[in-house]
Amino acid sequence: MASVLEGDKDEDDHDDNTKLKTMSLQQERKMLPIDALREELIQVINDHQIVVVVGETGSGKTTQIPQYLYEAGYTKLGKIGCTQPHGVATMSVASRVAQEMGVKLGHDVGYSVEFEDCTYHKTVLTYMTDAVCLREFMEEPDLASYSCNVCTEILTLSPNLMKEKVVYHHGRCLPEPGAWCNQYVSCPSFKSWG
To answer: pLDDT (tens digit, 9 = 90+) per residue, 81-91?
Structure first.
């Protein structure tokens, strides 16, 4: 009986440690430069179909913007997609966001890379490689199942693909950085410096 109680205590300790870790991650989120601009950013996104977000590495663009959209209710209208140019970065960022949100990777938050899909039908925030994004676009040209797409490092995407996504997508598209997007579409630029 003592071992069962100890097991329960260990499980409770694990739950407490998970809660403490999540709280610590929430504190880290609040310290990121982009957090100070959160409300303004959401308003700009609400007001425009396309928004360019420019910020230094580590400012929180890739991890925080999709979470802000999630918290603002964008998943009620469809999934949120976030592109990454490389598979390892895609998996790493998805794992970090799942930790920050306190959810199991592959459930609310998942990733899809060339030979691995860690999502299921109820996943609402999906990090994906550019190649997977292209495949999604080819299978669903209007991207109707998405409410928003956050396209990071769009210099790696084909300008024609980006133009097609912009033309056909009725949700929101948040490309980075500003100089590239301003060549192809007219949209506001939002800056976050760290």
So the answer is: 998 889 999 99
